């Protein structure tokens, strides 16, 4: 992982491969952002003009490289776009800083050290820049042979070291902001690694082992239910989905507790390590990226570990519902009826609607502890991708105020999200002649139908929200901002912020 430090060094004397500065979009051309004063001075105050000559406008995502002025130890100045100049006194928005830092870190892959001289008005800005840099520097090359040698010409190792200039290294608030950025980004990047790991190497058993090891390291209590324990406990949903795979299912419970906690949150993650669709097999073209179907579990795992590393004063239980959805002679058939952990029976009409089956058991298990709220995270439906696109997750739930609160939390941390309804009239589409409910209903509004299914497995009176991250969990396009190609870690920052606000008594 990229190392991150707060530095009081002045830009000119700093030994680094590049100095990163910000450029904003002004009414009359590019504007040099605060933090870059020393660079501007060395350009005789003409840096904005130089940038304009080079074609820079200050637009978000833009990168302009220029030679460092004489007298600078670093050879390169990298100017990243921050978008519009903020209104007077408003300061740069955290998300603009995060994205610019992410773009810079990604552009500088292959370099060893960079100094970030972006606008820092308060501790939170240093946190945002740090987070963006660490997330943007991420790359997954565990399976690239030449990636193993950082000196390999096209190996392009991630930027190794980031020095944040303009902050106050001895100030408690700045230190805390940077520590938070490091903990959240490291765990989020680990979630990305899990998502990107191919399904022949990441199955329910190996995922559970990774969770077990991390939990031990961070003082989190961990309990793994293997197939035998799941049978004994009556977890028919998780078992039914895992029945076709040679790699048996697991339910992992991670309990982080704080002696000062007043509230208890439960996070539940869909962990299908590969979704072939099962007997209702997905056609070619729809299964190549289905290693991403454990993204919800990866995000829950990351959020619980981050909460422990930050020592948040709230109890957080993470539930990872892990199974591989495969067709075989032992697989669940369309037409089978499963008896779920809650005691309800489900007629499986489509084995590709498996996420709701594993989640149903985990939601019911989570409910038994009567937490103050449950949030599940899942790559649940293609319908949500059709509705909201590739970058926005949908939020559903049984409590409008909590759904709104989560939407605001997501917005605050820079995760695009949108509240979605659970229309009652869609429930009857899941009526089954044979069982209590079917795992499929009307095709139209499929994301909401899935949400209605999950609602039936939440204990009475428990506040619950559901994040359908099927769109943003896996980026099949090119990288943007601090988001890489592949696994994104969608949901992690929303969960961590929710835990922080709950700990602070500012929510629920
Ligand atoms: N894992 C998929 C949903 C998905 C689709 C995730 C695209 C990421 C990208 C889920 O298990 C699934 O197959 N859902 C079906 C449900 C249907 C059979 C009711 C779907 O959305 O088509
Ligand atoms: Mn499926
Ligand atoms: Zn799935």
TrEMBL record:
<keyword id="KW-0464">Manganese</keyword>
<keyword id="KW-0378">Hydrolase</keyword>
<feature type="binding site">
    <location>
        <position position="354"/>
    </location>
    <ligand>
        <name>Mn(2+) 2</name>
    </ligand>
</feature>
<dbReference type="GO" id="GO:0004177">
    <property type="term" value="F:aminopeptidase activity"/>
</dbReference>
<feature type="binding site">
    <location>
        <position position="352"/>
    </location>
    <ligand>
        <name>Mn(2+) 1</name>
    </ligand>
</feature>
<dbReference type="Pfam" id="PF00883">
    <property type="entry name" value="Peptidase_M17"/>
</dbReference>
<protein>
    <recommendedName>
        <fullName>Probable cytosol aminopeptidase</fullName>
        <ecNumber>3.4.11.1</ecNumber>
        <ecNumber>3.4.11.10</ecNumber>
    </recommendedName>
</protein>
<keyword id="KW-0963">Cytoplasm</keyword>
<keyword id="KW-0031">Aminopeptidase</keyword>
<feature type="binding site">
    <location>
        <position position="275"/>
    </location>
    <ligand>
        <name>Mn(2+) 2</name>
    </ligand>
</feature>
<feature type="binding site">
    <location>
        <position position="354"/>
    </location>
    <ligand>
        <name>Mn(2+) 1</name>
    </ligand>
</feature>
<feature type="active site">
    <location>
        <position position="282"/>
    </location>
</feature>
<feature type="domain" description="Cytosol aminopeptidase">
    <location>
        <begin position="350"/>
        <end position="357"/>
    </location>
</feature>
<dbReference type="InterPro" id="IPR023042">
    <property type="entry name" value="Peptidase_M17_leu_NH2_pept"/>
</dbReference>
<dbReference type="InterPro" id="IPR008283">
    <property type="entry name" value="Peptidase_M17_N"/>
</dbReference>
<feature type="active site">
    <location>
        <position position="356"/>
    </location>
</feature>
<comment type="function">
    <text>Presumably involved in the processing and regular turnover of intracellular proteins. Catalyzes the removal of unsubstituted N-terminal amino acids from various peptides.</text>
</comment>
<dbReference type="Pfam" id="PF02789">
    <property type="entry name" value="Peptidase_M17_N"/>
</dbReference>
<dbReference type="InterPro" id="IPR011356">
    <property type="entry name" value="Leucine_aapep/pepB"/>
</dbReference>
<comment type="similarity">
    <text>Belongs to the peptidase M17 family.</text>
</comment>
<feature type="binding site">
    <location>
        <position position="293"/>
    </location>
    <ligand>
        <name>Mn(2+) 2</name>
    </ligand>
</feature>
<feature type="binding site">
    <location>
        <position position="270"/>
    </location>
    <ligand>
        <name>Mn(2+) 2</name>
    </ligand>
</feature>
<feature type="binding site">
    <location>
        <position position="275"/>
    </location>
    <ligand>
        <name>Mn(2+) 1</name>
    </ligand>
</feature>
<dbReference type="InterPro" id="IPR043472">
    <property type="entry name" value="Macro_dom-like"/>
</dbReference>
<keyword id="KW-0645">Protease</keyword>
<keyword id="KW-0479">Metal-binding</keyword>
<dbReference type="InterPro" id="IPR000819">
    <property type="entry name" value="Peptidase_M17_C"/>
</dbReference>
């Amino acid at each position: 992982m990229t190392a991150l430090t707060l530095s009081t060094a002045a830009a000119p004397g700093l030994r680094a491969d590049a100095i990163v500065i910000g450029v904003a979009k002004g009414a009359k051309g590019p504007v040099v952002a605060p933090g870059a004063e020393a660079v501007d001075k060395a350009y005789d105050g003409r840096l904005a003009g130089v940038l304009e000559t080079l074609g820079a406008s200050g637009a978000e995502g833009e990168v302009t490289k220029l030679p460092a002025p004489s007298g600078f130890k670093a050879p390169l100045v990298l100017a990243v776009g921050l978008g519009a100049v903020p209104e007077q006194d408003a300061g740069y928005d955290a998300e603009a800083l995060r994205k610019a830092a992410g773009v810079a870190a990604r552009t500088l892959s292959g370099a060893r050290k960079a100094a970030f001289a972006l606008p820092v008005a308060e501790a939170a800005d240093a946190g945002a820049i740090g987070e963006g840099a660490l997330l943007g520097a991420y790359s997954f090359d565990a399976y690239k042979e030449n990636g193993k040698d950082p000196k390999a010409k096209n190996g392009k190792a991630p930027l190794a070291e980031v020095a944040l200039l303009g902050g106050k290294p001895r100030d408690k608030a700045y230190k805390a902001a940077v520590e938070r950025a490091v903990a959240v980004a490291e765990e989020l990047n680990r979630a990305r690694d899990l998502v990107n790991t191919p399904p022949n190497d990441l199955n329910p058993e190996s995922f559970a082992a990774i969770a077990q090891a991390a939990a031990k390291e961070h003082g989190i209590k961990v309990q793994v239910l293997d197939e035998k324990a799941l049978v004994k406990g009556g977890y028919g949903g998780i078992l039914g989905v895992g029945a076709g795979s040679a790699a048996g299912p697991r339910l992992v419970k991670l309990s982080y507790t704080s002696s000062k906690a007043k509230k208890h949150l439960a996070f539940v993650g869909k962990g299908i390590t590969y979704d072939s669709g099962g007997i209702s097999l997905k056609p070619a073209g729809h299964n190549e990226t289905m290693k991403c179907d454990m993204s919800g579990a990866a995000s829950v795992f990351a959020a619980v570990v981050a909460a422990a590393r930050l020592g948040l004063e709230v109890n957080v239980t993470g539930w990872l519902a892990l199974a591989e959805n495969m067709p075989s002679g032992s697989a669940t058939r369309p037409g089978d009826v499963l008896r779920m952990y809650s005691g309800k029976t489900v007629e499986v009409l489509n084995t590709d609607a498996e996420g709701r089956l594993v989640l149903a058991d985990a939601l019911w298990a989570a409910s038994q502890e009567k937490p103050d709220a449950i949030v599940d995270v899942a790559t649940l439906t293609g319908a949500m991708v059709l509705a909201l696109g590739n970058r926005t997750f949908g939020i559903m739930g049984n409590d409008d105020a909590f759904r709104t609160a989560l939407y605001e939390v997501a917005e605050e941390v820079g995760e695009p999200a949108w509240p979605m309804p659970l229309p009652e009239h869609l429930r009857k589409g899941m009526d089954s002649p044979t069982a209590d409910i079917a795992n499929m209903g009307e095709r139209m509004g499929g994301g909401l139908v899935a949400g209605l299914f999950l609602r039936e497995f939440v204990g009475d009176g428990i506040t619950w929200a559901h994040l359908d991250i099927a769109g943003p969990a896996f980026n099949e396009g090119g990288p943007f901002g601090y988001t890489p190609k592949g696994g994104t870690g969608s949901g992690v920052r929303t969960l961590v912020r929710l835990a922080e606000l709950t700990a602070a008594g500012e929510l629920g």
